[in-house]
Amino acid sequence: ETEKTLAGKTVLITAGPTYEAIDPVRFIGNHSSGKMGFSLAEQAAKRGAKVILISGPSAQKINNENIELHKVTSAKEMLSKVLEFYDRTDIGIASAAVADYAPKEIAKEKIKKNDENLTIELVKNPDILKTMGEKKTHQFLVGFALETQNEEENAKGKLEKKNLDMIVLNSLRDEGAGFKNDTNKIKIFTKTGKTEFDLKSKEEVAKDILDFVEEQVLRHNTE
Ligand code: PMT
Description:
Blueprint: E1 10-15, E2 20-21, E3 27-28, H1 35-46, E4 50-55, E5 67-71, H2 75-86, E6 91-94, E7 101-103, E8 122-124, H3 128-134, E9 140-147, H4 151-161, E10 166-171, E11 183-184, E12 186-189, E13 194-196, E14 200-201, H5 202-222
Parallel strand pairs: 1-4, 1-6, 4-5, 6-9, 9-10
Antiparallel strand pairs: 2-3, 7-8, 10-12, 11-14, 12-13
The structure holds ligand PMT.
């Protein structure tokens, strides 16, 4: 039996990819499976938290009655779902791989192939986590950074720019880390420190992240 260290807390987690429609049959997406976010949800629920899990398209399943799963498709839908629950959130964890751009227009009918090349104009999507950072009142906010180069600088930049309390870096340069794998290798940054972890199962990584969050939240509340 897991100790109920998060009893009384509401944890909001974003997970999975977003799909940005091009036409009724096609979309722009990414390789996120949702495993990292669903593992976090499962572990937070085991610790007694009420979990609001907002996920893009994912085949992952949940089996814990403390998890309320809201399925969305696009970044815009994810943002509006997040905002519905944000005021009630104590701890927000953004593990979703949100598409940064979406097609400017969604074609009503399937785009027909012809002999020409096809250009699709993309416009910027809202930054969900940045919006959460701007609206932060009492929430403890955790972001992820998925990088392929200048990993640490980029992660620290996001911590600052998005007004986060901590950020979890995973690099696609590390074997077994990031998308789809059942494992991940992370580094956690706060405003003052850096902690490195070994390659582990996403279940174990989720435990490490929540242990870290709990320690930070405690410190936060006693300062
Ligand atoms: O789902 P899995 O297959 O298990 O893979 C897990 C994962 C690799 C997707 C996960 O561990 C991870 O790194 N998630 C964040 C991916 C990402 O989009 O990172 P980013 O560096 O582009 O974004 C930085 C942060 O801003 C993230 O917390 C992201 O959720 C958030 N963001 C980004 C863009 C946007 N428009 N809105 C956001 O909220």
